[in-house]
Design brief:
Blueprint (H helix, E strand, L loop, with lengths): L9 H11 L6 H13 L2 H17 L1 E2 L6 E2 L5 H4 L4 E8 L2 H9 L5 E5 L17 H7 L6 E4 L5 H14 L5 E4 L15 H9 L2 E2 L2
This protein binds zinc ion.
Zinc ion binds next to helix 4.
Amino acid sequence: MRITDGALPNALERLTEQFASLPGVGMKSAQRMAFFVLAQSDEKVQAFSDALLEAKRGIHRCPECQNLTDLDTCPLCRSDRRDHSTICVVEGPKELLAVERTREYGGVYHVLHGVISPLRRIGPEDITINELLKRIDGSVHEVIMATNPGAEGEATSMYISRLLRPLGVKVTRLAYGIPVGGNLEFADDATLYRALEGRVEVE
Ligand SMILES: [Zn+2]
């Protein structure tokens, strides 16, 4: 789609389109960003473009917890200050950060990278459930299901719990405090802390 009907150079149009493809960025903002880029020094623009490529090329999933990392194994999984017998299962890296912000959780994590959603055609094999099951050996004592409240998060949590229980591991889920339909990412630290503290065993 051409935005200005030839009034601007093609390269500027293309740049604007790229910015407009970012989540939450409308055409007007995209155009402002494109003009901003033009006003920067070559070095600054180079650094920006390097950061994009380096992030894309250098960041992968931690083989243990599946969180994003630029190291072989992420710092949380490598840390001997973390309790490796407790795994907190979250939907994505943003939710992991939310739990981490409470500073009250000392275990390790497992990042699902999504939830099961028949509507969006996301099945159990599309998220990292198998990777989680592989981590359950005798050394893991508790798995805390911290998926977001709401139908898909709940269903995913139940699905995983059913797979985990026969493996002889205690499965708990976050308790009160997180409103149904709410999102861990936006829960305040105190609310999330209470939900974590008051977690209950999954029946
Ligand atoms: Zn990790």
